[in-house]
Amino acid sequence: MARLQVSGLVLAAGLLAATATGAAPAPVDAQTINQIADEGFNRGEVVETAAYLADRIGGRMTNSPAMRQAEHWTQSRFKAWGLSNVRTQPFEFGRGWWIEAASVRMVAPRPVTLRAIPIAWTPPTVGPLSAPIVVAPLRSPRDFAAWRGKLKGKIVLTSLPTPPKDETKAPFERLSDPDLAKLNTYEEPSFDPEAAGKRAERQRFRGQLDAFLAAEGAVAQASMSRSDGGLVHGEGSGYRVGKTPLLPAVEIAAEDYRRLARLAKVGEVRLEIDSRVHFEDADTKANNILADIAGSDPKAGYVMAGAHLDSWVAGDGATDNGAGSAIVMEAARILSALHVKPKRGIRFALWAGEEQGLLGSFAYVDQYLATRPSSDPSLAELGPYYAADGFPVKTLPGFAEMSGYFNIDNGSGKIRGVFTEGNFAAAPILKEWLSPFASLGASTVAAQPTGSTDHVFMVKLGLPAFQFIQDPLDYGSRTHHTDLDTFDHLRPDDLRQAAVILATLLLDAANSEAPLPRNALPTPQKVTDPFRYPDPTPTN
Ligand SMILES: [Zn+2]
C-alpha cells in the first residue's frame, strides 16, 4: 500500500515536469497504474510462470521436444488468461536437437570426469568413443597445411588454452546512478563495408574446420569454454537441414581444457566421449507464439511486447530468456485481468530461433512489416543477421500498424529504464511514461543503442522499438548461455517489478494520442571513414 501511495506522488511530480517540458501527459490514468501495480505485486503469477518454464520444461532449444512443449504450454496459458487470437507463426528453421545424456572423461594418464557439453547440432558418438587427444590450434584455413596427415584417429583440441583471468569485478551487480548515467551517451552509427564479410568468414570457418577434421580422419573435436569457473555453453550453428557437422564435438570447461593441454605436452592423454544426442526432423518449422488484446480503434494499429522463448541447452534457459518470456506473459495476464480496453491493440510475442540469429523476430518483420534484399547474395545462406541489410526496403501493409515494440532480453534483473535505440524524439515521451516508477528504480531513458536481440530488425526499419535497461545481476558473469542458467538466478521481486512496468508502458503506448515517433526508413549509409584504407590483414 505504501508503495502505491509513493507511486501516486511521483506521478503528480511527473505531470508537473511534463507540463514544464511540453510533453503530453501520461495516457494511462493514475488509477489504472495503481491497479496494474496491485495485480502484479499482490496477485502476480510471474514467478510460477518462470519456474514452470525453467524447472519443469527446462532448456528450450528451437525445435527440440522441450521447445515444442513450451510452445503448447505458453499458448494454453495465454488462452486461460483470456487473451484473444492466440496462435503460432511458423517459419522455416531446420533440425531439432537435444541431449539425452553426455559424459566426457579423461581415461589416461588418470581417470577424471570433465565438465563438458556436446556442441549443439553435432552428431552423437556411437557408444563411448575413446581416443588420444592432440592440441592442434586451427584458427583459419591457413593453419590446415601444418596439420595435414597428423590427426587420424584423434580427438582434436582445436584451440590453444588461453590463460586464466584475474576476476576483479563483483560477479553480481546492480546498476548505480553513475552506471545509469553512463548509458545515456549516444554512440553514432558507423558503416564499414568490410565488416559483414569479416563476420561471415568467421562463421563459415566452423564448417570448414569440421570438414577438414573429418577428411583427415579425426574422430571428434573439442573446444575450450570461453568462461572460467567450470562453466560450459555448448552453442553451435549447424541447425539447417544439410548443414549438420560431420564430427561429434564437445566444449570442455576452461580449467579441464587447460589441464588436458598441459598433460598433452608431456605425454599421451586419452579421452572417452559419450554423446547421446538426438535430432528431430518431423517438422523443420519453428513457431513464434502470438497473443492479442484487441484495440477499440481498428485504424490505430497495435503495440507489442516480445521476448524469446527459445534458449541454449546447457542450463534451464531461466535468465535467457525464461525471465523475459514470463514477464511478457505476466504483462498480458495483468492487462487481461484488468479488462483494459485500449485504443490500439496490444500484441504479445514469444520468439523462437533468437539464439540462432534473431530468426523468429526476423520472420515476423519479413512476413508482416517489410522486406529487404540482401546486400551481398553470398551472405544470404548465413541468415538474416548477416544478410537482411540491402535496399530498397519494401514496406508491407502491416508496417503502418506497428506503433511501438518493447523487448525484454537482458537477463532477469529488474527494469531500470529504456534504451531509446537512436529514437531521439521518443526520449521525452518514454521518460514521462516511466515517471511513476522512479520509486521502483526505473526512470532512466538512455540514448545508447543496443543490439543482439529481437528489436534489432524493427529498429533497422526505423520503427519505434526499444530494449529495456535491466540490472545485470550475475547474467554476464555466470548465467548467460551457461549450465548455471537456472531458476536460482532469478529474483522474484525483480520479475514482478518488470511485469508491472511493462504492462503500464504497453498501455501507455496503446492509449497515447499519437503513436510513438518513428525514425526514417533506412536508405544506403555513407562509409563512416572515407579516408581509411582497406585492412590489409586477411582474416583467413
Ligand atoms: Zn541468449
Helix and strand layout, with pairings?
Blueprint: H1 2-21, H2 30-42, H3 46-57, H4 65-80, E1 84-92, E2 96-108, E3 112-114, E4 116-118, E5 129-135, H5 144-147, E6 155-157, H6 177-183, H7 195-215, E7 220-224, E8 249-252, H8 254-266, E9 270-280, E10 285-293, E11 302-308, H9 318-337, E12 345-351, H10 359-369, E13 370-371, H11 384-387, E14 394-395, E15 402-407, E16 415-419, H12 427-434, E17 444-446, H13 456-459, E18 465-470, H14 475-479, H15 492-511
Parallel strand pairs: 5-6, 6-7, 7-8, 11-12, 11-15, 15-18, 16-17
Antiparallel strand pairs: 1-10, 2-3, 2-9, 4-8, 5-9, 10-12, 13-14, 16-18
Helix pairs in contact: 1-2, 2-15, 3-9, 9-15
Zinc ion binds at residues 320, 355, 481.
What would you say this structure looks like, in words?
33% of the residues lie in helices and 19% in strands. The protein is built from 15 helices and 18 strands. The strands form three sheets. Strands 1-10-12-11-15-18-16-17 form an eight-stranded mixed sheet, with helices on both faces. It has an eight-stranded mixed sheet with strand order 3-2-9-5-6-7-8-4, sandwiched between helices. A two-stranded antiparallel sheet has the order 13-14. The protein is globular. Residues 1-23 have low confidence and may be disordered. Bound molecules: zinc ion (ZN).
